[in-house]
Amino acid sequence: MNELLLGLRLLFGSGRGNRARFALMTLGGSIGVCCLAVVLTIPGILAAQDGRVAARQPVPPGHSATGVNRLPLWLERTDPYGSRPLVRIFLARGTEAVAPPPGLEDMPDRGEVFVSPRLHELLRTETGLAQRLPGREKGLIGPQGLARPEELVAYVGMSRDELSGGLPVTRFGKPEAPIPTVDPSTLDILRFTMVGIVLLPLAVFLSVCARLSAAERARRLAALRLLGMSAAEVQRVNAAETVAAAGLGAFLGLGEYWILNQLFSRVGLPGFTWYPGDGTLAGTTLLACLVGCPALAWFVGRAGARRASADPLAVRRAAVEKPPSSWGFLPLAAGSGIAAGYCAAGLTGHAPRDTFLPSLLIPAAIIMIGVGLVTTLAPLCRILAQRVARSTGSLALGLAMRRNEAEPSGTLRVAAGLVLLVFAASLAQGVLIQLDQATRNPSRIQSYDIPYEQLTGPQRKALERLPGTRGHVVSTQSSLVGASETAWSPHVVLATCTQLRAVVSSAGRCVDGQAMRLRGIGGTQGGATRAGARLTVQLEGEHRDLSLTVPQRTLAYREVEGSLVIDPESVLVPPSVLPRGTRPASATLTLVSASAPDVVRRVLDGIGHVAPTADVLPQGLDITGLQQIAVIKTLLAVGMVLGLVIGIGAYLVAATDRAVERRPQVTALALLGARPRTLRAVQVAQVVLPLAVGLLLAVVVGKTAESGYLVTGGGAIFWDGAGLPLLLAGTLGVMVVAALGALPLVGRRIDPELIRRD
Question: Is the pLDDT of residue 196 over 60?
Answer without folding.
Answer: yes
